[in-house]
Amino acid sequence: MLITRSDVLDEGQSIFVKNLHDFVRDRLAFASSLIVLFFFLLALFAPLIAPHDPYDTDLMRRLQPPFWLDGGEISYFLGCDALGRDILSRLIFGSRISISIGLAVVFISVSIGTIAGLIAGYKKGVADILISRLCDILLGFPYLIFAIGLMAMMGAGFKNIILALAYKEWVEPCRVVRGETLAAREMEYVEAAKSLGASSKWIMFKEILPNILSPLIVVSTFRMAYVIITEASLSFLGIGVQPPTASWGAMVSDGREFIYDAWWISTFPGFAILILVLSINVGSQGLRDAFDPRFHR
Amino acid sequence: MEKFQHNQNPILSIKNLRTQFPTRQGLVCAVDGVNLEVNRGESLGVVGESGSGKSVTFLSVMGLIRQPGKIVSGSIIFDGQEIIGLPDADYRQLRGKSIAMTMQDALTALNPALTVGSQIVETILNHDKSFFQSPGSYRRAKEQAIEIMRLVSIPDAHIRFQEYPHQFSGGMRQRIMIATALACRPKLLIADEPTTALDVTIQEQILDLIDGMKKSLGMSVVIISHDIGVVAQNCEKIAIMYAGQVIEIGPSKSVIHKPKHPYTSGLLRSIPNLSKLDQRITPIKGNMPNPINPPGHCRFLERCSLPIESCKSPIKMYHFGNSRSVRCVHNGIGL
């Protein structure tokens, strides 16, 4: 018989599945992604998990310390803030804000960035000049200042944070997609698709996009970490999510005045930001190692 | 019946085609006044060394010449219709559905991120608009794709449908590429180097496959190759290209047995012959002339074994009976 198969991969295994195996084998990255998953579950089931109502104020418990310090109570595990609200419950509910804003901004910006990047990279010419220069202009502004300016104009609020961040956030995926598309458009399979009558739209979305999916996934996860930090920064500055909504950035800010007397108010949300962002970063680095062919050893 | 149509109405007729590429050193005339005809149900072999303009000629037919290259003059008539300057949307309808081309390298011409089956299915869905009108269109396209995979002799087509190009061997990949090209039953198949990088036994299978498809689907075929042996066996007509020009054309048998151009006879003499192992093959010395400002005289002059004074003026095509033509003043005398 004629059939000889490439031995590089197992039978029926796509490159994607092989990369996924590589990723799972990278223990640190896999553990990080489990932590991220843990935060996602916290956010999803917050009302079921949180021991108390995060908005329930109780002045008797004002600045109550965590359970292992004098005056702490096991049912108020991480203590209470200046209004006597349970910090653990507020942390759990705060994860909803960070993660939903992170997901929404990344989803919007990756969608816009992918389309813009494909058009710029594939069509070249005027479209490329317009899109690339717009990217350069947006990159010229410092991220936070740009977001602060937009928030000042639009006013604070959940929807406005998403818009303010997405305005600039699409630039990164756009640049990555454009670069990858520039390389992919010269491949012979694009020429072959053309010779079989494929339209530009077809080639961009059905031929090129599947081939640049890996770097796109990687850049999206990296940017998610960045968006979460920026949201926390905006909320810390008081122009993000408005009180009394529990947001990690706002919680850090709330605890500022009491940092010497009640360090736990600022410290725990700070840790939450640190752990989530670090896990996303380590996880996406693992993703990059597994999925980006240039990092294959 | 088939025979009767033959000479009246060729499926493809290229007249005086000129395709140029501006470069920093000057204008490269990759195709310089090519005349070719492909009749219905006929196969034409186009032979020439690298850079002779054979691929560019047929990329011009497909309308796939890359900027800044362009077709400067000439006419390409496909199925009675002039296709140079056709609007983009109309050209897309033509490609794949009426003329299909398989690319040189089957490894890189298949999309590595998609299963081979979906690549065939997409070509079908792309062209057959009736598929969109009914539910279950994907399923029908899939059945059709598996049918085509069987047609090009891929064993276990329904299983291999879901596999990726890297899971196929070189010969199988070439079959898949032919299958995608045949997905919409084109009237003309252009196979660009279909056997390069395949070993000899597989070469033979692929050529037989193309020949069988030609007969069963009643299409016309153009095989582009640098190997005159490959083309001679499988094509009824053969055209030899050199430095952007067709220098000899005629029925395969007659060209092989009695070449009329020194270049053709040189090509034939440089094929190793197993029955005469002690005989050394004779290569053609020298290189092709610079494609920028090619010489006004015979382009083969510097490498020719029979140069005479009249070779130093521009050479026209000499036509003979039994549809042979040659671009040489010797007309085959003295070879």
Structural summary, described in words:
The complex is a heterodimer of chains A (about 300) and B (about 325). Chain A is mainly α. Chain A has a single domain (about 20-45, about 75-295), classed as MetI-like (MetI-like fold), CATH 1.10.3720.10. Chain A has 13 helices and no strands. Chain A has helices at about 15-25, 25-45, 45-50, 85-125, 125-140, 145-155, 160-170, 170-185, 190-195, 200-210, 215-235, 250-255, 265-290. In chain A, helix 4 (about 85-125) packs across helix 10, helix 8 packs antiparallel against helix 11 and helix 11 (about 215-235) runs parallel beside helix 12 (about 250-255). Chain B is of the alpha/beta class. Chain B has 2 domains: about 1-90 and about 185-325, Rossmann fold (3-Layer(aba) Sandwich), CATH 3.40.50.300; about 105-185, no CATH class. In chain B, about 30% of the residues lie in helices and about 20% in strands. Chain B has 12 helices and 12 strands. Chain B has an 8-stranded mixed beta sheet with strand order 6-7-8-3-9-10-12-11, sandwiched between helices. Chain B has a 4-stranded antiparallel beta sheet with strand order 2-1-4-5. In chain B, strand 11 (about 320) and strand 12 form a beta hairpin. In chain B, helix 6 (about 135-150) packs across helix 8. Chain B is globular.
Instruction: Determine the strand fraction of chain B and express it as a percent band.
Output: 15-25%
Q: Separation of termini of chain A? A: 35 Å
Query: Helix amount of chain A, in percent?
Result: 55-70%
Structural class of chain B: alpha/beta
Number of domains of chain A: 1
In short:
With 297 residues, chain A is mainly alpha-helical. Chain A is 67% helix and 0% strand.
Q: Keyphrases for this structure?
A:
heterodimer; A: 297 residues; mainly alpha; MetI-like fold; B: 335 residues; alpha/beta; 8-stranded mixed beta sheet; 12 helices; 21% strand
List the helices and strands and how they pair.
The complex is a heterodimer of chains A (297) and B (335).
Chain A: H1 15-25, H2 27-44, H3 46-49, H4 87-123, H5 125-140, H6 143-154, H7 158-169, H8 171-184, H9 188-195, H10 200-208, H11 213-236, H12 248-254, H13 264-291
Chain B: H1 2-5, E1 12-22, E2 27-38, E3 43-47, H2 54-62, E4 70-78, E5 81-82, H3 88-94, E6 99-102, H4 106-109, H5 116-127, H6 137-151, H7 157-160, H8 170-182, E7 188-192, H9 200-217, E8 220-225, H10 228-234, E9 237-242, E10 245-251, H11 252-257, H12 262-269, E11 318-319, E12 325-326
Parallel strand pairs in B: 3-8, 3-9, 6-7, 7-8
Antiparallel strand pairs in B: 1-2, 1-4, 4-5, 9-10, 10-12, 11-12
Helix pairs in contact in B: 5-6, 5-8, 6-8, 8-9
